[in-house]
């Protein structure tokens, strides 16, 4: 027995002597292993953070406002009607020295839109660019997509309408510029460290799946003087508690999600960062199911929830009570808010034929399995019971099953969340037009559809916002097409007395350029 | 004996095929698809994604194709993590889980047997009660409690050990200690209790009384005669325990951020990552079947009463 113990101890010590690599300048606990590093094959937030280090589109991101700043494009001009954008490209090169030309941009975007690429975010450029949707749907060839290289350094795109928010979208990975020459040479493996070619402030040095992604400063990046970190390491830590513990011990510099149970503790620390983002948590009502097809019932349900108490006592993550679908946004006046009023809710329910909830069918409230959704659903269930006298049954399903139920309309009330793709009210509204993919509750109002379509043809400015406001008023205040609950907030840990160049912003976008140790 | 081993090895093949077949069809019964997401993808994109992995073909054809691929050793592509083949993932992650699992099981075995024997020999003493209380604790306190507690104590409070990570990229071998400890606790507790019970049983048997009557030294009685028989139940426990522990523990791997196989089990099922689910099932099945076979063979060597033909 003793010998066995000796052997085990010896082997253990031997392993312990072997040491790890050098510490990166900055380590981030990035929530999960990315789906891919190929910008056209990703769709998540952790992927986006890595993408920001490795690639840059025509536009970059301002770390303070998350608005568009020049990236590969040095400058641009817009036609009078706001639909034709002409970009002047700067002298930027790939990490292997090959120049980035307007032709590269054309080929890159076509790659994303190519139905063969099957990019999960291809719908995004397709909503903007003329002819792109038909190409994506396989109805037309790539020659119909209205993008072209005028000369080596001039790129032009024609939009379906004068979308003022298109510049903000151009920093998105769906509009990424990718090294076509490297992709042609290495195929699927172009993204592996040994073949990697990028144009971001950092290049991929090492990638151990599920363990670590290590990137180092790109010496060929056009704005390399503003890149202060020598290296960044992305850890796919799935366990939020561990990520927090690692942060406490100084093993990571940025934790992107503080576990809900630890927020009250974290909140006492100066390095706790909590800020609202452009995202709405809401309940979808299946408008085909009686009595939810009665607007009075929907309004009663929406008015009988105490959102302040919900965010302060139940969700507790710094969320903001939502009385509209669109979160507060610069320049957007916002609609007349939903008024919480139990008495009025009771009256509305009585008018609909259910005085004190009598005779109201037991509806099911569907949510995807997660502690916070459960707590919120329980709270709302309780509110409706106490305030309206109606019973709601809770039902949870794991994510994919829940998505399928939603998609097939097999639900009565369902929890949902939406985070804006760009900073414009449209991203929260256009998915509710008749028969749109995200419109699982089957909301349909011709006037709303027309207003959204009208806004899409208007130049930027207060007039356009007025039209969107009118649309949202119809959708929420009059029709109560969905029930907004709260606007999301993020809860993170990063010590801003130690790091500068990192700012809270409504998109939760944090470019790596400019980040440095104080 | 050799005849027996060969027969068992051949027996593994039909068992595996049955497992593959059942899993393949059961997985497809689950609602949702690998490509369902909150923002519905355009039908043309879905069609292309499905075409890439032949989801557009009749199920039976897909099954035959998959069986053919598996026979050629190709486990296909993950629909979630698209940059590597599943073979590449397994080749990287299985050794990680193996290292961790073998170390944890060895630790559990050594400490479990030692403590079990000690408890049995000092039956009904304070030592016995203490050890058995400890093992009850080990069985009943889940790993997702033990792991974070160890992290808090050893890495945050004392600052001796890294919180999480794996050898190659971060803190070196020290990073192994906490996950191994966490992973070994449950098996340690089972083994300690099993050993104690069976040592007590054997100590009461006739051949031990005979040995004592003959005046054999107590050391020989324990190590030569008692342990050999007493370890048989532990041995049968080890087969499934080995398969369990080396294919990775989801809990330990996510707490300690370890790039092992365990995480694939749960994540692939949640993502409807059809081929990754199949791959994890196959790896698990092979290891379980082989581990059981090995246990049976060792059994035959240790227990003269067992005869294989």
Describe this structure in words.
The complex is a heterodimer of chains A (518) and B (309). With 518 residues, chain A is α+β, with helices and mostly antiparallel strands. Chain A has helices spanning 2-17, 45-54, 102-113, 123-128, 132-136, 166-169, 180-186, 240-248, 263-266, 295-303, 307-315, 342-351, 371-388, 399-407, 426-429, 446-456, 462-478; strands spanning 26-29, 59-61, 68-70, 73-78, 84-89, 147-151, 154-158, 202-208, 212-217, 231-235, 254-255, 272-285, 320-321, 363-368, 392-397, 413-419, 482-494, 499-500, 516-517. In chain A, the strands form 4 sheets. In chain A, strands 1, 8, 9, 10, 11, 12, 13, 14, 15, 16 and 17 form an 11-stranded mixed beta sheet that branches. In chain A, helix 10 packs antiparallel against helix 12 (342-351) and helix 16 packs antiparallel against helix 17 (462-478). The longest helix of chain A has 18 residues, at 371-388. Chain A is globular. Chain A starts with a helix and ends with a strand. The model of chain A is unreliable at 1-5 and 7-20 (pLDDT under 50). Chain B has 309 residues and is mostly helical. In chain B, 73% of the residues lie in helices and 0% in strands. Chain B has 12 helices and no strands. The longest helix of chain B has 36 residues, at 86-121. Chain B is flat, with a radius of gyration of 24 Å. The model of chain B has no long low-confidence stretch (mean pLDDT 87). Classes of the chains: A alpha+beta (518), B mainly alpha (309). Chains A and B meet through helix 1, helix 8, helix 14 and strand 16 of A and helix 2, helix 4 and helix 6 of B.
């Amino acid at each position: 027995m003793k010998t066995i113990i000796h052997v085990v101890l010896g082997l253990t010590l031997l392993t312990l002597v072997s040491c790890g690599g050098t510490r990166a300048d900055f380590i981030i606990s990035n929530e999960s292993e990315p789906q891919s590093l190929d910008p056209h094959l990703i769709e998540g937030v952790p992927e986006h953070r890595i993408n920001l280090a490795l690639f840059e589109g025509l536009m970059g991101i301002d770390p303070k406002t998350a608005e568009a700043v020049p990236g590969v494009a040095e400058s641009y001009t817009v036609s009078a009607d706001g639909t034709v954008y002409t970009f002047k490209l700067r002298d930027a090169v790939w990490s292997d020295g090959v120049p980035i030309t307007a032709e590269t941009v054309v080929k890159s975007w076509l790659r994303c839109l190519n139905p063969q690429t099957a990019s999960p975010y291809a719908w995004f450029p397709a909503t903007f660019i003329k002819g792109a949707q038909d190409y994506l749907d396989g109805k037309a060839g790539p020659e119909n997509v209205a993008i072209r290289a005028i000369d080596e350094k001039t790129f032009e795109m024609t939009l379906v309408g004068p979308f003022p928010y298109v510049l903000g979208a151009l920093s998105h990975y769906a509009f990424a510029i990718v090294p076509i020459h490297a992709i042609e040479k290495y195929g699927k493996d172009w993204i592996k460290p040994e073949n990697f070619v990028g144009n971001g402030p950092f290049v991929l040095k090492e990638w151990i799946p599920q363990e670590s992604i290590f990137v180092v400063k790109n010496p060929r990046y056009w704005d390399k003087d503003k890149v202060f970190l020598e290296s960044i390491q992305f850890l796919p830590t799935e366990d939020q508690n561990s990520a927090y513990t690692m942060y406490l011990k100084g093993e990571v510099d940025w934790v992107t999600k503080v576990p809900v149970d630890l927020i009250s503790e974290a909140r006492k620390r100066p390095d706790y960062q909590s800020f609202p983002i452009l995202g709405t948590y809401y309940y979808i009502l299946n408008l085909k199911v009686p009595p939810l097809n009665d607007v009075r019932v929907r309004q009663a349900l929406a008015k009988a929830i105490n959102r302040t108490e919900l965010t302060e006592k139940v969700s507790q993550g710094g969320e903001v009570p939502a009385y509209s679908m669109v979160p507060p946004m610069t320049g957007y006046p916002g609609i007349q808010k939903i008024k919480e009023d139990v008495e009025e809710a009771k009256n509305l329910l009585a008018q609909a034929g259910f005085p004190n909830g009598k005779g109201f069918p037991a509806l099911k409230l569907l949510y995807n399995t997660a502690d916070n959704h459960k707590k919120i659903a329980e709270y709302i269930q309780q509110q409706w019971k106490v305030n309206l006298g109606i019973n709601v049954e809770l039902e949870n399903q794991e994510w994919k099953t829940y998505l399928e139920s939603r998609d097939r309309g097999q639900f009565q009330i369902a929890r949902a969340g939406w985070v804006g793709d760009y900073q414009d009210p449209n991203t929260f509204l256009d998915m509710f037009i008749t028969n749109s993919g995200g419109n699982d509750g089957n909301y349909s109002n011709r006037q709303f559809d027309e207003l959204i379509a009208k806004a899409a043809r208007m130049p930027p400015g207060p007039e356009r916002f007025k039209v969107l406001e009118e649309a949202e008023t119809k959708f929420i205040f009059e029709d109560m097409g969905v029930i907004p609950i709260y606007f999301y907030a993020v809860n993170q840990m990063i010590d801003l007395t130690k790091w500068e160049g990192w700012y809270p912003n409504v998109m939760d976008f944090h470019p790596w350029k400019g980040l440095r140790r104080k | 004996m050799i005849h027996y081993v060969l027969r068992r090895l051949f027996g593994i093949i039909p068992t595996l095929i049955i497992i593959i077949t059942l899993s393949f069809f059961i997985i497809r019964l689950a609602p949702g698809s690998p490509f369902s997401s909150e923002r519905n993808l355009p039908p043309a994109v879905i069609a292309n994604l499905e075409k890439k992995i032949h989801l557009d073909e009749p199920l039976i054809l897909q099954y035959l194709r998959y069986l053919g691929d598996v026979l050629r050793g190709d486990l296909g592509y993950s629909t979630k993590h698209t940059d590597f083949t599943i073979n590449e993932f397994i080749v990287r992650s299985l050794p990680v889980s193996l290292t961790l699992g073998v170390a944890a099981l060895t630790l559990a075995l050594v400490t479990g047997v030692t403590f079990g024997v000690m408890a049995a020999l000092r039956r009904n003493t304070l030592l016995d009660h203490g050890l058995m209380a400890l093992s009850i604790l080990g069985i009943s306190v889940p790993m997702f409690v033990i792991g974070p507690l160890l992290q808090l104590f050893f890495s945050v409070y004392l600052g001796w050990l890294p919180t999480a990570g794996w050898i190659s990229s971060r803190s070196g071998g020290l990073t192994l200690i906490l996950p191994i400890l966490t992973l070994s606790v449950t098996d340690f507790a089972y083994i300690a209790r099993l050993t104690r019970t069976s040592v007590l049983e054997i100590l009461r048997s006739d051949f031990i009384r005979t040995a004592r009557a003959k005046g054999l030294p107590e050391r020989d009685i324990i190590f030569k005669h008692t342990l050999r028989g007493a370890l048989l139940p532990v041995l049968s426990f080890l087969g499934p325990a080995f398969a369990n522990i080396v294919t990775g523990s989801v809990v330990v791997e996510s707490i300690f951020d370890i790039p092992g196989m365990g995480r694939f089990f749960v994540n692939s099922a949640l993502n409807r990552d059809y081929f990754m689910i199949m791959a994890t099932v196959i790896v698990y099945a092979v290891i379980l079947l082989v581990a059981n076979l090995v246990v049976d063979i060792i059994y035959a060597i240790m227990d003269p009463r067992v005869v294989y033909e």
